[in-house]
Amino acid sequence: MPVTAKSWFLVEPKSSLEEREWELPAPGGAEALIEVLGNGLCHTDLGFADGEVRTNHPLPLVLGHEAVGRVLEAGPDFAHLVGKTVVVPAVLPCGDCDLCHAGHGNACPRQKMPGNDIHGAFSSHLLVPAGALQVLDAPGGVDVRHYGVVADAVSTAYQAALRAQVTPEDLVVVVGAGGVGGFAAQICAALGAKVVALDVDEERLALMARHGASATVHTAGKDARAVREEVQRHAKSWGLPSWRTKILECSGHPTAQETAFTLIGRRSTMVQVGFTTAKVTLRLSNLMAFDASVHGTWGCPPEAYPKVFELIAQGKLALEPFVVLRPLREVNAVLDDMRAHRLKRRVVLDPRA
Ligand SMILES: [Zn+2]
Ligand SMILES: [Zn+2]
Description:
Layout: E1 3-10, E2 18-24, E3 31-40, H1 43-49, E4 61-62, E5 67-74, E6 85-88, H2 98-101, E7 125-129, E8 134-135, H3 153-163, E9 171-175, H4 180-190, E10 194-199, H5 202-210, E11 215-218, H6 224-237, E12 245-249, H7 254-262, E13 269-272, H8 285-290, E14 293-296, H9 305-313, E15 323-327, H10 331-339, E16 346-350
Parallel strand pairs: 9-10, 9-12, 10-11, 12-13, 13-14, 15-16
Antiparallel strand pairs: 1-2, 1-4, 3-5, 3-7, 3-16, 5-6, 6-8
Bound molecules: zinc ion (2 copies).
One zinc ion binds at residues 42, 44, 65, 90, 152.
């Protein structure tokens, strides 16, 4: 049955989102209609709202790509999902191209991202392709709405750890401990690695010291060389050779990207996780000289989500200290808070509050 949804549309960049009621059609054969329980607010949403990044779908568009919800109705192929609580991956692969078949669905050229390619989850309801939905059977004592952040921030961090092939013998340096970085530090620690978290914000570092980071480096006012020396001191104290260094750049800040690149030593691996439109100047030949590698990472293949759910259920990956709930109707005020750097935690918007 079609449903009347209440959604927040980006009508024009740099103006407030507009709440509108509209009719969502009944789901087609491979689609699911979801009642949204929570949706994490991502920095990319602010990029769209401020016109720094263009959405693939023309405006007006409902933003939001970190959804958890309950399946109300699904096409005949996915009837088994009705009534289930699901996390909607931010990257919904087609499931049927060469990259998808090779297990790289996160890089699928036909992928759909809610709030970018299709209408998103700043909404009471969401209509999405059903093939990649992740059933959440047991939330492990966690408020189910908090799982919104698993759709992107947490799963992206997990995929970054996979990309870096993190092992218990590694030193992982997480650059930028807010948002994705906070989850990356916990995930790498859960995989057995020693984690050093770098950030300009001492409050965030204090939180990381309680969740995943064995050491922290406060980078404000320090040049890249001083930061590198501090990281190397920690590595030495744990007896970890520099060639075991894996660097996850999660801030997307140009200065932090330069710092991260400076940390590359012999056989190091760096993964670029954060996003910026800014350009930085780097000496790529350092990679040659150090036999080092740099990877990008985008989203997370659907097959990896159950492992993330497992880490949460086992208490190895905490969501609650990093998340705060706000009513969806306050979305414009929350975007203002994000613009002014007033948010200390990742916001999950609740459409029913
Ligand atoms: Zn995002
Ligand atoms: Zn595909």
